[in-house]
Design a protein that fits this description.
Blueprint: E1 14-18, H1 23-37, E2 42-48, H2 60-72, E3 75-81, H3 90-103, E4 107-109, H4 118-134, E5 158-162, E6 175-178, H5 183-191, H6 203-219, E7 224-229
Parallel strand pairs: 1-2, 1-4, 2-3, 4-5
Antiparallel strand pairs: 5-7, 6-7
Helix pairs in contact: 1-5, 2-5, 3-4
Length: 247
Amino acid sequence: MPAEEGAPSPSFDALVVAAHPDDAEVQMGGTLAKLARRGQRILLVDLTDGEPTEFAEPGVRARQATEAARILGVERLTLQHRDRLLVDEPGIRLELARLIRQHRPRWVYGTGEACVHPDHAAAAAITRAAVFLARLGQWERVPGGEGLSDQEPWAPDRLFFPHCKMEPAWSEIAFAVDVSEVYEVKRQALAAYGSIFKPAGDQLLMLYEAEDAYFGRMLGVAFAEPFRAASPLLLDDPTVVLASVHG
């Protein structure tokens, strides 16, 4: 888990910011499992605790989120903002910017453009703003910015956005990750959330998996998770790009 107050802060290769526990698993659980298997340290940051839930008492979802993170091989931090009423405002932007500066990730993953669930839309805007604010200095001269004044600026290498599966499928993406070999791990992580999903035949899980299969089919694999990027991708070597069924 992230360091307690006063202890040295661990660095993470990636921070993944989501509105609720289960969002990151749904959107990019296969990618998380794959990166963890390759030795990356990943911190999931849930902006809310996702309470209340559909099928359980308060506190159950938090325990299930811990188990899902264990299955994927990642770490998790849950902030205390209000589910269903998440708002993009200066305080939460600075709180997330402080975490970015504290843990110094090379990559930040947010939530792709969203409009169905207001919390998802807010999370997308909060993440964009926090990544920008984290790289700025002179916070001691900004009223209300004292919380960043004792840290060095930090600019992640990249800001990526997995697709929010409550939204219509994207017609254009920056890239996709082949998650076929770890897809069973993603299923296991999502199955941990009995407070949200039915144990068998859950319609939402079926729809989410259908999207991963759709993007996989487009690219000639069983399952793929799509991403967009805050800026165009830059390659030093174009031969690192994998072959695709349509060239």
